[in-house]
Amino acid sequence: MSKRRIWGLVLRHLYNFRRNYDRLVDTFYWPSLDVLVWGLTIFALSRMGQTSPLQIKAIVFAVLLWNIVWRSQSELAVSFLEELWSENIANLMATPLRKAEMILGYLSLSLIKFCLSFTLTSVLAYVLYQVNVLELGFYLLLFIISLMMFGWAFGFLTISLFLRFGTTIQTLAWAGIWVVMPFSAVYYSLSVLPVWVQQISRFFPAAYIFEAMRSVLFTGSARLDGVLVSIGINLLLLSLSLLLFLRSFAVAHKNGIGHLK
Amino acid sequence: MPNLVLQVKSLTKTFKNFTAVDGISFAVKEGEIVGLLGPNGAGKTTTIQMLLGLMTPTEGEIQYFGKSLVTHREVILKRINHTSGYSRLPWRLSVWENLDVYGHLYEVANHHQKIRELAQAFEITDLLPRRVLDLSAGQTTRVLLVKAFLNDPEVLLLDEPTASLDPDIADKIRDYIITERKKRKLSIFMTSHNMQEVEELCDRVIFLNRGQILVEDTPEGLARRNKESEVQLMVKDGLKRLIQMATEKKWNYSEKNRFITLTIPEHEIAPFLNSISKQSIKYADIQIVRPSLEDFFLSVVEEKT
């Protein structure tokens, strides 16, 4: 494993990041707009007496935490798409860069962009609505770990599909993750949903986290077993998605990685 | 005997019902420049892609420096490099940024210094701050060549390296390649459609057709396989006698404004010159065009079609 090669891959995307308005919009604009729109909507509802300050907080936290899933998945997938768009994948794969280094490079990049995006949205939430995400305390760290793992698992699944179908399905990089949102209990409690949705939600690790977030908010604590189940499912999903990623790379090599567009 | 830096055994690539490369075997020695020629669809690019590890062969083995590419990928790719006249680089990055990234990926020691040296050699110093997006095709080709030399490769795979380059720049790059070969025994495996370039650079040529090696020889050797030369004359007197002679001998000829071009077997050129002298055929100008590599290439392509 070479740290320098991993840094080389990260650097390639950081150079692109500072020159590419699309990527800046992805990392800063959409998450900020999300906080702004949802926050103002719930703020307006509270003025009409339909929500409590605690509910405002729950929604804003939900927006901040959902962005972790969304950005983690999207940053991975779009970074890979950048190689396909610039027809650089053959050059890259003809270097000594190993698949494991590639994976670590993309994860590091995702982590860097998460820090930038999460810091901005958290500050915005505090300034606009006096909602401090740090109130979640130690749980916040566990929530971030679990949600990032989920986003990454979905991200590698998306890249695996790109390796097989190319950029014809590139919209999955932005839109794919939203398919899990209805079952992740992001903005509402699981208990208010139909039974069949609740049953499906058991398999969605993010649902445990959003339930735990609301529990911390309303009761001051959350059951750790739910968080641990979430991390356990995520470990399984991440391992499966990485296996699929490696398998898809092998298929792409069979067809010729240079033909991938 | 020089070391073999690249050895290919029974390399085959099949796509469903189509065999793109059909059991080819060859080797490249240290310091040798080998050309891979063939018409479109012969299997050249597929071969290069397999040699770079970008495509998994259906069968066969690729070894660099006596080690298998499958089991020693990382070690091998550190010691080789490549470029293609049709490759691209991330277009939003500047030339410097792109080369900086590849310097890290190839773990080049003191790579900023190396980039500056190569940029000077390939005359792209002024392009370093510019985005790849703003470069012409020829400028991008030069940047890709700098990338290819960044890690001081022992084996260089070049796919149409001077395509889209101005003749003067292409010439400088050929000189650079020759110097590097002399200086540090660089081995090169290249494809090109520029036959003059192949004749100038290559020690040996592998001619691929329909995925199989048709012939392997020196550029001169391949050219000589075409046994006929063209003799061009400006005939002052005796044109009819000359045409009669060509007709009797069944030589192809073309004539316009007393300029005649005859296609004559190599061994009959000397008797032909004697003969026209004896028949008092007078000519003002004579030119004998020996068969070239291009003639061989064209003859194979014609056979194919």
Q: What would you say this structure looks like, in words?
A:
The complex is a heterodimer of chains A (261) and B (305). Chain A has 261 residues and is mostly helical. Chain A has one domain (3-260). Chain A is built from ten helices and no strands. Chain A has helices at 3-19, 21-47, 53-85, 89-93, 99-129, 138-165, 172-175, 195-201, 205-219, 224-255. The longest helix of chain A has 33 residues, at 53-85. Chain A starts with a helix and ends in a 6-residue tail after the last helix. The model of chain A has no long low-confidence stretch (mean pLDDT 91). With 305 residues, chain B is of the alpha/beta class. Chain B is built from eleven helices and 14 strands. Chain B has a six-stranded mixed beta sheet, sandwiched between helices. A four-stranded antiparallel beta sheet of chain B has the order 2-1-4-5, with helices on one face. In chain B, 40% of the residues are buried. Classes of the chains: A mainly alpha (261), B alpha/beta (305). Chain A binds chain B through residues 2, 4-5, 7-9, 11-12, 15-16, 19-20, 82, 86-88, 90-98, 250, 253-258, and chain B through 15, 46, 49, 52-56, 73-75, 77-78, 81-82, 87-94, 97, 100-107, 131, 147.
Largest interface, C-beta closer than 8 angstroms, per-chain residues? A-B, 32 and 34 residues
**Quaternary form:** heterodimer
Provide the succession of SSEs of chain A.
HHHHHHHHHH
- The Rg value of chain B, from CA coordinates, equals 24 Å
Domain unit count of chain A: 1
Structural class of chain A: mainly alpha
Strand content of chain B is: 25-35%
Low-confidence stretches of chain A: none
Which range best describes the helical content of chain A: under 10%, 10-25%, 25-40%, 40-55%, 55-70% or over 70%? over 70%
How many strands, what sense, and barrel or not for the largest sheet of chain A?
none
Q: What is the count of helical runs of chain A?
A: 10
